[in-house]
Amino acid sequence: MRKRMQIASILTAGTALATSLALFSSPVRAWAAEGDRASEVITTTEEHGRKVYVNESIPAPTRATPAPQPKRTTWMYWSTRENRWKPVPSANTPSMQAARSAAAEIGQFVHESSKSANARIMAANSRGHQATPEEVDAAIVMAAARHNVDPNLVRAVVKVESNYNSHAISNKGAMGLMQLMPSTAKMLKVKNPFDAQQNVDAGVRHLKSLLESYGGDVKLTLAAYNAGEGAVARSAGVPRIAETQDYVRRITNLYYGGSDFGSSGASRDPVHVQRDARGMLYISNTD
């Protein structure tokens, strides 16, 4: 009887052990307490007919590191008045706006000076020949006849623009007898703006184009030659610019007043320019 009870106890214990093994036949996670570096996983393997339980560590999930924020650069300057370093004011402060305005003015001055310097270099490389008044007048007569423009008007423009100096250069870079700007000379395909014939021919072509645009109106033509067609369009007439108004007055006084143009021996008779019903331009020095 006692022997049977021992066998029953062994069977009961075996059943309990088998049940326990069945429960652990799949991996069981044993999570580490909060703050531990890693968790553990219990797995079972078969070795030589025996089940072996193995604890495997699971690396703790890494926390995402926030991207480093770029450091804001603060520009500093040395104040000689206060004898210390000071932060540069922001771009919207009145002092910075005034500084930017001053820098723009300096940049414009440097730009215009460089254009004038380039013009002087071109003048120095133009074989050094200074056209005589007779050569200038001959160039005027030929260009005026070629493009059907009154030579006296051209003489007046040359007198005011350059005073018959074929190497004249303005502080804005205008060049030669009729003071062609570099962009205008390029547009008119002038290779040497200090050559009397090339310069006058290009200037007369430009003058003729303006005369046709303004229906033979000499004042508007001269205003556009000096200030540009855009300025004349915006003003609906001669712009109220002191330089332009003085320019138009001086040339028209020479042209209509029969003033002497110097050694060129220009005609003193006023020349009238008008357009007929067909659009043809007529130039005459008789009433």
Automatic annotation (TrEMBL):
InterPro entries: Lysozyme-like_dom_sf, Transglycosylase_SLT_dom_1. Keywords: Signal. Pfam families: SLT. The keyword Signal applies. Residues 1-32 form the signal peptide. The lineage of its organism: Bacteria, Pseudomonadati, Acidobacteriota, Terriglobia, Terriglobales. CDD domains: LT-like (cd00254). It comes from the Bacteria. Residues 140-237 form the Transglycosylase SLT domain. Belongs to the transglycosylase Slt family. This is Lytic transglycosylase, catalytic.
